[in-house]
Every structure is written in structure tokens, then in C-alpha cells.
Write a structure and sequence with these properties.
This protein has 132 residues and is α+β, with helices and mostly antiparallel strands. It is 21% helix and 26% strand. It is built from 3 helices and 5 strands, in the order αββαβββα. It has helices spanning 24-36, 64-73, 115-119, and strands at residues 44-48, 56-61, 82-87, 90-99, 102-108. Strands 1-2-5-4-3 form a 5-stranded mixed sheet. β1 and β2 form a beta hairpin. The N and C termini lie far apart (83 Å).
Length: 132
């Protein structure tokens, strides 16, 4: 009566299983970061192995302050930080760098802005005149 959901789809092309050893560089980068920057705030860490690219590491922080400490420690310029918003509850900072040949993505949550504030284009140029 039912379909066995564990049977592979005959039309789908099976992907070969990749060994965990392909994530070694990212794991070694994580060990090096803990040795070098062990006093910095901890975060949610993931090592991801996309099918067609090398493994990378993501570190997510609960606060913008923790994000900033890591951004500075990894020498990521402030101009390379992006501000993201999907709703009032989800406004975050993001930045990417390479450490020991591994892409590192930093994310900092709990940014004290609304989605509207975060997505309003900033005007650059001269500061407005101040009345005397």
C-alpha cells in the first residue's frame, strides 16, 4: 500500500559519500583558533562540507560585541562587515575571512536595530549644518 521511503529514487543521481578526512583542514583551523584566541567568547561552531567545494567553518555569536572581538582578532576590516535583516527578530552582522586556507564565516546576532533601520540606505556625504 505505501511507498518505502528508504528506497533511493531511481531518477536521482547518487552522490558519492565524502570522507570526514576532507574536513581536516577546517578542524585543524578550529584547533589553531582555540589555541591562539582561546580567551575570546565562544560561539556556535559548524564545519560544513558542501558537495562541490572545500570545507568551511562558521562561528555564530549571540551578541554583536562577541562578533566584534573576533572580527578584530581575525583582522577583518570593518568595511567588510555586512548587515542583514529578514524581520525585526533577525538582524545580524556577517563577515568572511580565510584562516589557514579555510573560509571562516562570522555571524553576530542580537543587533539592536529593527529590520527597517537595518535596510534603510545610509546617505554619505557632508554632515548636515548645525544651527547656531
Amino acid at each position: 500500500m505505501g511507498t518505502n521511503v528508504t528506497e533511493p529514487n531511481a531518477q536521482a543521481s547518487p552522490r558519492p559519500l565524502r570522507p570526514i578526512s576532507e574536513q581536516r583542514a577546517a578542524a585543524e583551523a578550529l584547533v589553531a583558533l582555540t589555541e591562539m584566541l582561546g580567551s575570546l567568547p565562544g560561539g556556535y561552531i559548524k564545519i560544513h562540507q558542501p558537495y562541490f567545494s572545500p570545507a568551511w567553518m562558521g562561528i555564530q555569536f549571540e551578541t554583536p560585541q562577541a562578533f566584534e572581538l573576533w572580527r578584530e582578532a581575525l583582522c577583518i576590516p570593518g568595511a567588510d562587515v555586512s548587515l542583514h535583516a529578514t524581520s525585526d527578530a533577525y538582524v545580524w552582522l556577517g563577515a568572511t575571512t580565510v584562516f589557514r586556507g579555510v573560509r571562516i564565516e562570522l555571524t553576530g546576532f542580537d543587533v539592536p536595530l529593527t529590520a527597517e533601520q537595518a535596510t534603510t540606505p545610509q546617505v554619505t556625504g557632508e554632515a548636515p549644518a548645525v544651527a547656531a
